[in-house]
């Protein structure tokens, strides 16, 4: 009986871990698709200083 309880707890833990991995994977896939489609919030994390600012067009 104890072994069956331990097995059930281990199975529950494995299910929780699998759910976490699936959620993270789905989030990563969503981000990749948004990047490829050019939707979502653009990231300026990997660009040089001064890139992505406002352009002065009053000249």
What would you note in describing this structure?
This protein has 59 residues and is mainly alpha-helical. Helix content is 61%, strand content 0%. The longest helix is centred in the N-terminal third of the chain and has 36 residues, at 2-37. The termini are far apart.
The biggest beta sheet is recorded as:
none
Structural class: mainly alpha
Report the principal-axis shape.
rod-shaped
First-last Cα distance: 82 Å
Strand percent estimate: under 5%
State the order of secondary-structure elements, H for helix, E for strand.
Answer: H
Total count of strands: 0
Total helical elements? 1
Mean of all residue-level pLDDT scores: 82
Please mark out the parts with pLDDT under 50 across 5 or more consecutive residues, or reply none. none
User: Nearest-angstrom radius of gyration?
Assistant: 23 Å
Helical residues, percent: 55-70%
Short description:
The protein has 59 residues and is mainly alpha-helical. Helix content is 61%, strand content 0%.
Descriptive keywords:
rod-shaped; 59 residues; mainly alpha; 0% strand; 1 helix
Please give the structural blueprint.
Elements: H1 2-37
């Amino acid at each position: 009986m104890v072994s069956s309880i331990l097995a059930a707890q281990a199975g529950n833990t494995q299910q929780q871990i699998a759910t976490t991995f699936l959620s993270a994977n789905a989030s990563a896939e969503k981000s990749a698709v948004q990047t490829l489609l050019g939707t979502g919030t653009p990231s300026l994390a990997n660009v040089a200083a001064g890139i992505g600012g406002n352009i002065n067009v009053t000249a």
